[in-house]
Design brief:
Helices cover 52% and strands 6% of the residues. The chain has helices at residues 39-49, 55-74, 79-85, 91-100, 105-111, 127-149, 158-182, 192-202, 216-229, 233-237, 283-296, 320-333, 343-360, 365-376, 385-388, 390-408, and strands spanning 2-4, 15-20, 26-31, 244-245, 252-255, 277-280. A hairpin with a 5-residue loop joins β2 (15-20) and β3.
Length: 410
């Protein structure tokens, strides 16, 4: 079954269609304006990227490759021929492509291709997104060039030149990514005042709660899971009622990886990107989830027809976009949280709070690292914790520095 994803701009020449296989796996295809698959792009996605990334990541990578194909077509560059012949792109063309990837497709595809620059209408993606796009384009272009290498004898005099052109693609991409990285603000979690304010706002009993009566409790539970356990959107939306055990002496919640889930009919399937894990629940959290499952979830239409924990008012499992919309509704009512409230910022906040709680319990060093990695679903040797606990680390560094300064004036 094929489903066309909503184009990022009208009249896009290259887009993504998602094929849902009989196994439940969703597989994105880059197609041209006639809906026909683009051979080279899909070979790269099928044979190189598909074994390495999950479906949602593959869709995003496919969008970037579609952007690259669109850019080449509008500049009359026969991209597939250039790559498979080993000729590749010139330095100026690479500069133009990498620059073009900074913009949303509406600007990058039409306006920039015509050499126009209306700064009032220009839509620029974040530095992080730009860097990721450049990296994807780099890998696709180099792979396409290397197909030419494997058709040649290693002694062929053209081999060194093709290798140098591959290296040029890599060098220019790294330079663009370095600039994007240097301009990127470091993400941190909410501070203690912002956390307290958020918890006050989402409480169903709070007079200023921005949600309608029938979703107040659901949204409260959902946001608490994001904040209490640092779940990604996909991890929360993949939870089944059966994953929540609120009975017995050790109530728990289990995160399970379910890629290509035949029971999940959402257009964009939520995914558990990290390792599966079991998390023990406090009595209060277990009681809250029990009340939600027993009394509030059944009020959503058709909730008894699907095992997923969170439902929409339309009787469908909640979508990824809905999670963002819930947080955006809070920001619309409380502008002081503008720029601070996203699902991923809540993940950073969770890790800050986790480190703070661990320190109060006397846990530190490798023991803290191992616990943090397990609870986040990272490998036990991961160094991600230092990135996600930036505010807690900065606060501790500030305390140490001030204490040191004070010691000098005693």
């Amino acid at each position: 079954m094929l489903a066309r994803l909503k184009p990022s701009a009208q009249n896009a020449s290259f887009n993504i269609r998602v094929a849902r296989l009989s196994t439940g796996e969703r597989y994105p295809l880059v197609v041209d304006s006639h809906g026909l698959p683009v051979p080279l792009a899909n070979q790269w996605m099928l044979f190189i990227r598909r074994p390495m990334v999950q479906a949602n990541s593959l869709i995003e990578e496919g969008r970037t490759v579609a952007h690259v194909c669109d850019w080449a077509m509008r500049r009359n560059i026969p991209l597939e021929e250039r790559l498979t012949s080993g000729n590749g792109l010139t330095p100026s063309e690479l500069q133009s492509l990498y620059q073009n990837l900074r913009y949303g497709r509406a600007y990058g595809r039409i306006t920039a291709a015509k050499g126009l620059a209306d700064v009032n209408n220009m839509k620029v993606v974040s530095a992080k997104v730009h860097g990721a796009r450049v990296g994807i384009a780099r890998e696709f272009l180099i792979w396409g060039m290397e197909t030419a290498l494997y058709r040649l004898n290693v002694a062929d005099p053209r081999v060194p030149e093709i290798r140098e052109r591959c290296e040029r693609i890599r060098r220019q991409a790294i330079e663009f990514q370095r600039k994007a990285s240097n301009s990127r603000a470091k993400r941190v979690g909410l501070d203690s005042q912002q956390r307290a304010r958020l918890l006050e706002i989402i409480n169903p009993e709070y007079a200023g709660n921005p949600f309608s009566r029938n979703v107040k409790f659901r949204n409260w539970v959902l946001i608490l899971l994001l904040l209490t356990f640092g779940f990604r959107r996909g991890e929360s939306l993949k939870l089944l009622v059966g994953d929540v055990n609120v009975k017995g002496r050790k109530p728990s919640l289990t995160v399970v990886r379910r890629p290509g889930d035949l029971a999940d009919h959402r257009g964009v399937e939520p995914a558990v990107k990290t390792l599966g894990r079991m998390i023990y629940l406090s009595p209060d959290m277990a009681a809250l989830l029990d009340v939600f499952i027993q009394h509030h979830r059944p009020q959503f239409p058709d909730a008894d027809l699907s095992p997923f924990l969170f439902f929409s008012q339309r009787g469908k499992p909640l979508s990824l976009r809905s999670v963002n919309a819930i947080l955006e509704q809070i920001v619309n009512c409380y502008p002081e949280l503008q720029g601070f409230l996203t699902p991923h910022v809540l993940r950073y906040t969770y890790n800050d709070m986790l480190v703070e709680s661990a320190r109060e319990s006397g846990l530190s060093g490798e023991s803290l690292k191992a616990a943090q990695n397990y609870l986040n679903g990272w490998s036990l040797t991961s160094e991600q914790g230092s990135l996600y606990s930036r505010r807690a680390i900065e606060d501790q560094a500030r305390e140490i520095s001030i204490a040191h300064q004070r010691s000098l004036f005693r």
